[in-house]
Amino acid sequence: MRNSVKQIWLVGVMLVTALLLLATCSNSDNGSNGNPPDDGNGDPVSQTNRIRIDCPVTIDSPSQDTVVSVDVYLTNDSNIGAFSLGFVHNSSSIEIDTFVAGPALPPGSSMFGKTNEADNTVLVGWADFTNQNPIPPTHDERAFSLLLRIPAGTPPQSISLDSTFVAPAGYWLLAFPSGGDARPALDDCGSADVIIR
After folding, report:
1. Mean pLDDT computed over 115-144
2. pLDDT digit string, tens, across residues 85-116
3. Cα 125 off chain centre by
4. Residue 137 C-alpha from the chain's centroid
5. Which residue among 177, 182, 187, 195 is buried most deeply as judged by most CB within 10 Å?
6. Dihedral, CA of residue 5, residue 167, residue 19 and residue 44, to nearest 10
7. Is the dihedral of CA 76, 77, 79, 83 positive or negative?
8. Per-residue confidence (pLDDT) for residue 183, from 0 to 100
């Protein structure tokens, strides 16, 4: 059973990677040459392609292991066929346990990823493998929630969540079904996205 779950996860990661590579190999400029990213037609991507962490999330130092939900919101100006978002946090006391889909993600689509406790990262990927049910343009709608596990007795601290490269998918990317991509901006609370007091 465990091998079949790993195989399904690996196939999902490979398919999202292929979709993202297809998007970046189109005639769009993904920003890697110093030019602003464009939408595949040479036009700069709207600044409305954003990811927002709903923060700060504040809790008292728990007396028992606690799971805290950190909501992640999406704003986009074009249909999205896939995304790849890597997050990193700066605390050795907590771990990102998992993630759950939010209402911005269409039913029947696929969300997957991986967590890595050793380097405090999580990769969250989503794809519409049917190419029939993309994420339509939306404004500040919850895409998913990161679930953070905070052990009992965790000392007071401020925790930063930030964007990062997570292999094999790479840097943050929104892929458009028609070709092209955008690298979304991050709106967060700096070094205090999660506050344990």
Report:
1. 94
2. 999 999 999 999 889 999 999 988 899 989 99
3. 6
4. 17
5. 182
6. 150
7. negative
8. 86
**Contact 61/155 with Cβ under 8 angstroms?**
yes
Peptide bond into 168 cis (omega under 30): yes
φ/ψ (deg, to 5) at 77: -105, 0
- CATH for 121: 2.60.40.680
How buried is residue 26: exposed, middle or buried, by Cβ count under 10 Å (0-12/13-18/19+)?
A: middle
- CA distance linking residue 87 with residue 133, whole number of Å: 25
- If one counts the domains in the chain, the total is 1
What residue numbers bound the domain in which 160 lies? 2-196
Cα 61 off chain centre by: 27
Name residue 24's amino acid: T
